[in-house]
């Protein structure tokens, strides 16, 4: 598949995309991969963030893509107290360093210089000794000077010089020991200047080991037989039988901490167990890492975050992870009037939900942060795939399941709608040959029409279009003879236009358009009857000019007017052609479009598989922003869903590695100028953003003058918000003072005056 984006030829970026003040992060901190001890402080890492907390304080410091920490997938963590640096290792060899001044350094030496395949560069462990950082990786060992953060050397220590997975290293009696996956424990003298020569290494023990530390003048190692051993230089002696494989073996100098999936053991200097934890009350946890800091035990879990307890009483645990959604992988987000909902279940490109997800729902409502509803409260609904808010009943929310039907939330009440309680015209299970009792109800595409009816799609059944009427009755519509792949029909997003025509994106069937008010009329847009590049359609979106934007697995198409459905029997769609000098190119040619969202100014936010997200002008001829992981806080280039808050202009991006948002300015226009407001106000000396004037009608005229009436800025709104960079027509920053804002509607029949104070 072609990966070149012709859009680069004409892109104009209107502001520095590194301005992280325009971004917010909505990350989960529940999936802990490592826990690290420091003096009076504990550090913990998820796959895409790091946070720390002092033992004597409840304040959490968080480092993620918004603050400049942009990992690939974090695998291990190390805190250097001596050099006041934090090292973050990744699965691709990337090392991120938080320096003593708080800045983030990115080290790609392993990625670019170590001559092994990319899938052999995972970093497994860091070990600090005598100013050097020994990096255990899937190819061998690399060494870094901690003070300068420069690489010194790399060692391939297989018995014939080949790369081998090194799981952990330590130093004992001036010898470096390395636990390898295939060659036992290898060792060499640190005083040997030729450690890059594999012949200088010897096999200390040929068994199968998983970890090693130096502790209290001896070696302590974990074996693949799920036992812990000590070695004083002559032989290994068993300390503890664990009954499970060791995930992490750590020491803070005064304790040894051993983590398995269901157990954490703390051993003292005599290697006697002083604490053993095998459960955390009220949580069904799986442990991932643990450490001891200043008399407190900290345990990281696979999906429930970080917990702390006094080492003297390790039974009463306190969760201390930052507030966030259930997990980072987010399939769909939906913004209601005062809350954001997110679901984490999914299906693959072929709409296969297996393995089925048993995950809850994440809900964010501003001041109260995230409140997560766990799976065990959702009546067994699996693989939750989409969300719809009832526009006339703010407390009524529907969440579709791509296996179990659909959940209805009404205040605190939850109801599971399926084939047993929606009547003969309601939700249906697919039929599995040879198993008539099998129940699998794949519901998707929820959308409300202007009359308050809820429309959904039902995969793998003939009557694939369903509607829940406002009177509580269900109705179904049969696609027999309409689509080419009826028995295997699968459907993605749905958009409903002002004529109540339903536009449904379908897998292998293009776009299905349906309107029951015209004699159950159907029109199918596919490759046989329209200029559509792929019948695998991922998304559809209606814009403010009644155009339908269609995102397919191989490009973008536009239906110029959805009103044509009423009078025509076939519909033609068109690409957007970009002219750059003498070169004409198709916008997003052959690119898989994942989602399209339309903002208040009729601009389009478009996500491309593995390509980030683009903001294009209303006609697609100009690229306003292009965001990806390299130039923005996006944690991933796979943006699975885009949602826009029409009131604030905030644009939410749901990715496979977390949710972030961009504080856009294109909000829905107001009906009048009665609610115009200005923020921030006052503008203080340390503020570096723009002043936003919201609550505008479309095409309102905005003039800004100083107190003496001198004009410093003028513009016409597109949507409900404009922004001012506090300069006089872009020439120079205006001086401190009060500035008058005069707003008039396009027809001049409505007006208002506001003030903003600027303090330099």
From TrEMBL:
<feature type="domain" description="PorZ N-terminal beta-propeller">
    <location>
        <begin position="42"/>
        <end position="202"/>
    </location>
</feature>
<protein>
    <submittedName>
        <fullName>T9SS type A sorting domain-containing protein</fullName>
    </submittedName>
</protein>
<dbReference type="InterPro" id="IPR026444">
    <property type="entry name" value="Secre_tail"/>
</dbReference>
<keyword id="KW-0732">Signal</keyword>
<dbReference type="Pfam" id="PF21544">
    <property type="entry name" value="PorZ_N_b_propeller"/>
</dbReference>
<dbReference type="Pfam" id="PF18962">
    <property type="entry name" value="Por_Secre_tail"/>
</dbReference>
<feature type="domain" description="Secretion system C-terminal sorting">
    <location>
        <begin position="678"/>
        <end position="758"/>
    </location>
</feature>
<dbReference type="InterPro" id="IPR048954">
    <property type="entry name" value="PorZ_N"/>
</dbReference>
<dbReference type="InterPro" id="IPR015943">
    <property type="entry name" value="WD40/YVTN_repeat-like_dom_sf"/>
</dbReference>
<dbReference type="InterPro" id="IPR011110">
    <property type="entry name" value="Reg_prop"/>
</dbReference>
<dbReference type="Pfam" id="PF07494">
    <property type="entry name" value="Reg_prop"/>
</dbReference>
């Amino acid at each position: 598949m072609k990966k070149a984006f012709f859009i680069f030829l004409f892109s104009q970026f209107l502001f520095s995309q590194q301005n992280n003040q325009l971004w917010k992060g909505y990350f989960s901190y529940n999936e802990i991969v490592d826990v690290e001890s420091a003096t009076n402080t504990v550090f913990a890492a998820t796959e895409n963030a790091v946070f720390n907390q002092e033992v004597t304080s409840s304040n959490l410091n968080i480092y993620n893509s918004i603050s400049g920490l942009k990992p690939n997938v974090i695998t291990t963590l190390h805190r250097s107290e001596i050099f006041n640096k934090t090292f973050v290792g990744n699965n691709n060899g990337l090392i991120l360093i938080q320096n003593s001044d708080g800045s983030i350094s990115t080290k790609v030496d392993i990625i670019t210089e170590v001559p092994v395949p990319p899938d052999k560069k995972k970093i497994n462990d860091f070990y600090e000794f005598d100013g050097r950082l020994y990096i255990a990786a899937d190819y061998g060992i690399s060494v870094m000077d901690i003070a300068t953060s420069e690489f010194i050397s790399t060692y391939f220590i297989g018995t014939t010089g080949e790369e081998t997975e090194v799981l952990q290293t330590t130093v004992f009696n001036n010898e470096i020991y390395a636990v390898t996956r295939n060659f036992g424990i290898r060792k060499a003298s640190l005083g040997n200047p030729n450690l890059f020569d594999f012949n200088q290494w010897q096999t200390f023990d040929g068994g199968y080991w998983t970890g090693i530390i130096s502790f209290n003048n001896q070696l302590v190692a974990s074996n693949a037989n799920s036992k812990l051993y000590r070695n004083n230089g002559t032989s290994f002696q068993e300390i503890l039988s664990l009954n499970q494989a060791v995930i992490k073996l750590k020491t803070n100098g005064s304790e040894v901490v051993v983590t398995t999936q269901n157990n954490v053991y703390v051993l003292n200097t005599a290697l006697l167990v002083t604490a053993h934890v095998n459960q955390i009350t009220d949580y069904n946890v799986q442990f991932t890492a643990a450490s001891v800091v200043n008399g407190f035990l900290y345990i990281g879990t696979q999906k429930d975050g970080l917990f702390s307890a006094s080492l003297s009483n390790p039974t009463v645990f306190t969760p201390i992870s930052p507030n966030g959604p259930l997990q980072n992988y987010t399939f769909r987000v939906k913004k209601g009037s005062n809350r954001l909902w997110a679901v984490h279940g999914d299906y693959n490109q072929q709409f296969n939900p297996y393995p089925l997800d048993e995950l809850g729902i994440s809900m964010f409502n501003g001041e109260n942060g995230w409140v997560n509803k766990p799976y065990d409260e959702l009546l067994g609904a699996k693989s939750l795939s989409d969300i719809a808010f009832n526009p006339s009943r703010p407390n009524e929310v529907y969440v579709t399941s791509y296996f179990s039907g659909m959940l209805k939330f009404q205040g605190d009440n939850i109801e599971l709608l399926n084939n047993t309680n929606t009547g003969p015209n309601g939700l249906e299970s697919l039929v599995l040959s040879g198993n008539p009792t099998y129940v699998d109800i794949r519901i998707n595409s929820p959308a409300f029409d202007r009359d308050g009816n809820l429309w959904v799609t039902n995969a793998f059944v003939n009557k694939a279009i369903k509607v829940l009427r406002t009177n509580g009755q269900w109705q179904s519509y049969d696609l027999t003879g309409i689509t080419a792949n009826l028995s295997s029909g699968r459907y993605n997003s749905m958009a409903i236009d002002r004529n109540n025509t339903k536009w449904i994106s379908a897998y292998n069937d293009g776009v299905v358009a349906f309107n029951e008010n015209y004699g159950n009329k159907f029109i199918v847009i596919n490759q046989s009857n329209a200029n559509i590049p792929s019948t695998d359609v991922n998304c559809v979106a209606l814009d403010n000019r009644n155009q339908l934007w269609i995102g397919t697995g191989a490009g973008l198409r536009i239906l110029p007017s959805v009103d044509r459905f009423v009078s025509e029997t076939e519909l033609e769609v068109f690409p957007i052609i970009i002219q750059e000098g003498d070169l004409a190119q198709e916008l997003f040619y052959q690119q898989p479009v994942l989602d399209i969202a339309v903002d208040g100014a009729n601009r389009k936010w478009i996500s491309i598989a593995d390509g980030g997200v683009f903001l294009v002008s209303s006609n697609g001829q100009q690229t306003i922003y292009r965001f990806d992981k390299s130039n923005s806080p996006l944690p991933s280039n796979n943006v699975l869903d885009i949602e826009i808050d029409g009131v604030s202009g905030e644009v939410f991006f749901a990715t496979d590695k977390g949710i972030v948002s961009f504080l856009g300015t294109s909000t829905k226009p107001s009906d009048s100028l009665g609610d115009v407001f200005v923020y921030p106000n006052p503008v203080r000396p340390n503020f570096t953003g723009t002043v936003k004037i919201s609550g505008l009608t479309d095409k309102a005229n905005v003039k800004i003058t100083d107190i003496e009436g001198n004009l410093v800025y003028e513009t016409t709104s597109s949507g409900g918000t404009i922004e001012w960079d506090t300069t006089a027509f872009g020439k120079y920053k205006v001086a401190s003072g009060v500035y008058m804002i005069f707003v008039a509607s396009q027809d001049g029949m409505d007006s208002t005056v506001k003030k903003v104070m600027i303090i330099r």
